[in-house]
Amino acid sequence: MALRSRATGRRPRSRHLLGYALVAPLAILMVGVIGYPLLNTVLLSLQDQGVVGSSSSFVGLENYQRALSDGEFWGAIGRSGIWLVGNLVVQTVIAFATALVIGGNGRWARASRTWTLFPWVIPTVAVAVIWQWLSNSNYGIVPKAAAAVGIDGLGSPFGDSALAMPALILMNSWHWFPLGAVVIYGAMRTIPVEIYEAARVDGANAWRMFWRITFPLLQPILFALGLVGSLWSFNIVDSIYLVTKGGPVDATTTAPVFIYNKAFSEFRASDAAAVSVITIVLLAAVAFFYIRVARPKEDQ
Amino acid sequence: MRAALNRLPRLATMAVLTVVVLGPLYWITVSAFKDREEILRSTPTLIPQHPTLDNFRELFTATDYPTYLTNSFIVALLTALFTMMVSFAAAYGLYRLRIPGADKVAGLILVAYMIPGTLLLVPLYQVFATLELVDTRNALVIVNVAFTAPFCTWLLRGFFFAIPRDLDEAAAVDGAGPVRMMLRIILPLLAPGLSTVGVYAFVFSWTEFVFASQLVVSDDLKTLPIGLSAIMGQYTVNWGLLMAGTLCTIVPAIVPFLFAGRYFVGGLTAGAVK
Q: pTM (2 decimals)?
C-alpha cells in the first residue's frame, strides 16, 4: 500500500522534471538569442554607442528625440508601409489564383503542388540574381520580349528610382507567394464539397460560389495569414539589400534596411537600437489595430 | 461547350502560373550552359546550341565558390541536426509529457517566431562578441537553430498528436521508462515529422543572409548567400558564371525539398487550419 502510493506520487514529478529538462535547450536558446537581445535593444537605445560593441555611456532619450525628428526615418517608415501593403495585395491575389488551380485532379495540377513551392525554397540571393539577369537592360529576356512586342528601351527597373520599389515588390512576391498559396489551398480542402453541390443545385455560378462560400469560410485563415505574412514581409531585409542596398537614392530604404544601414554602414549602434524600438512599437500598434478591425466575428 | 468555357480561365491561370514559376528557373538553367558569346546574343536561343560546362569549371576553379559551398553545407547540416534534436526534445516535453503550463509556452513559441530578426542583429552581435563567437560557423548555427527550433517544435505538435497514447501505456506496462519510451518507441514513429523539420532547418540556414552577413567576417568562413552576392559584385559582366553559381545554390535547397516536401506542405497546412 505504502509502496504503491509512493510510486504514483513520484512518477508525475519525475516526468515533469524530465519534461522541463527536455524543454530547457529550446528555452535557453530563445532567451539567449531572442529574449535577451530584445531587452538589450532597449538599454542600448539609451546609450551613445557607435561601432557595434564599442564602449558607451548613458544619454537618456536623446537618440529617440533625434530619431523622431529625422525625416529620413519617417520616409523609411512610409516606404515600409508601401512595401507591406504592396506585398500583401500582390501576394494574396496571386496566392488565391494559384490555390484555385493547383487543387485540380490532372497530373500537371498534382505536380504543380510541388513545383509551385520552388520560388519559396530557393535562397533569396538566387532570387535576386535571377531577376537581375531577367531584367538586365542589355541582355535580359524581359526587355527583349518587351521589345519584340513593340516596347523599346526598357531599362532595368531596379536602377530606376520610380520603378525600383514596385519591381522589388514583384520580385519579393514571386519569392513568397507559394507559402500563401499552399496555406490557402490547404484551407480550401477543408470546405465540405456538399456546400458547393447545394449551391450548384440552387443555380449559383462559379464566381458567386467563390464570393459567397469560399471567401467567407476562408476568412479566419486569411486573417491569420494576413497578420503573420505582413509581419514577415515588413521585416524583410535580404530581398531589398541584395538587389538595391536601399537605393537608388533611398528609394527602397524601408525601416529594417534603414536600421541595418545605420548599424553596419554608418556605425551608429545606439541610433539603430532607438529606431528599432520605435519600429517595434509602431508595428505592435498596427498589429493591434489590424486584430481589432479585421478579426473575423465569431458565429453566434 | 459550357463546361469547356468554364475550364478556360482555369487552364489560362495554370499556363500563366507555369510560365511565371518555371520560366525563370528554366531560363537560368539554360543560361548556365551557354558559352560567353551565346549568352549575350541579341536574339536569345531557347536551347543552348553548344552546351558547355565552362561556366561551372570556372566557378569551381577561379572563384571561392567551393569554400562558400562547403561552409553552407556545414552550417546547414549542423543547423538541421540541432534543430531536430532541440525541437524533438521540446515537443516531447510539451505535447507528450505535458509539463504544467505547456499550452502557454506553445503560445510564446509562436509569438517569438514573429519577432523581427533584423532588429535583434545589433544586440545579438554584442552577445556573440562577449562569448567570443563572432566570426565562427558556430555563431551561425546557434542563431539559425534559435530561429528555426521554436517553429519546428510547433510543427511537430501535429505529428505527436497522430501517435496514439495507448502506445505509451502499453510500453509503460512493459516496464519502459519515459526516456526509453521516447527514444525507442516515439522517435522512430516520428521520422516523417523529423525529416520535415530537418528540411525546413536546412533550407532556412541555406537561405539565411542577414545574420551571416554580419556575424562572419573572414572570407574562408562565408556562406553562399554572402559569397554569391560577392561574386555578383566582382563578375557583373560574366553572366554565365553567375548563372552557374545560382544554379548550384538552388539545387541543394530543392532536392531535399522534393523528398520531404509532401510532409512539409502537409505539416504547414495542418498547422494553418488549426
A: 0.85
